[in-house]
Structure formats: C-alpha cells, structure tokens
Amino acid sequence: MSWIFLFLAGLLEIGWAVGLKYTDGFRLPVPTVITVTAMIASIALLGLALRTLPLGSAYAIWTGIGTMGTVIVGMFLFSEPATAIRLGCIGLIMMGIVGLKLST
C-alpha cells in the first residue's frame, strides 16, 4: 500500500506544480485553493508512504515522479521544448526511479 501512496503523492506533486502556473502568484482564488490542497494531500500521502519505505528512496521517487510528470505536462500544455536532451534526461530520471524501486 505504501507504494500506491507514494505514486499518488507523486501525481499530486505534478498537479500542484502545474497548478502554480495557474494561480498567478496566488492571486486567483480557485486555482490557489486547488493547488494548496494538492500540496497538502501530496505531503500527507508521502508521510503515509514513509511509514514503511526508506526515506531516501521514497523522497527521491516522489520528486522524480513530480519532476518527470511536470516536464512532460509542460511540453503538452505550455509548448515547452521536447528536445532530445530533455527526453534523455527524463529517461535517466525514470531509470533512477526504477533502480530505487528495485533496490528497496
């Protein structure tokens, strides 16, 4: 169950990172409430996952999911460049996540 919590926490990290773009510096109330709620839920789920998972692995996987997802969403929603180097780096992060999962 901890891995599910961690995965969901990572997805929520993507949500709040993208949500920050829509808050306009926390001036728009609805996006701000949604973003802050996603932040709290993400941290709460990470905390639940840390009951049984090692801190270093769980935190690295959480941030890795968030980083990869945010970069990918940025490419689709905000027309950020999808260069070979960026895609290669996403692949390296994915390899790190898989490696940490397999070693935990």
From TrEMBL:
The chain crosses the membrane at residues 33-50, 57-78, 84-102. It is found in: Cell membrane. It is a multi-pass membrane protein. It comes from the Bacteria. Keywords: Cell membrane, Membrane, Transmembrane, Transmembrane helix, Transport. The keyword Transmembrane applies. It holds the Pfam family Multi_Drug_Res. Belongs to the drug/metabolite transporter (DMT) superfamily. Small multidrug resistance (SMR) (TC 2.A.7.1) family. Gdx/SugE subfamily. PANTHER family: GUANIDINIUM EXPORTER, SMR FAMILY PROTON-DEPENDENT DRUG EFFLUX TRANSPORTER SUGE. This is Guanidinium exporter. It comes from Hoeflea poritis. The gene is sugE.
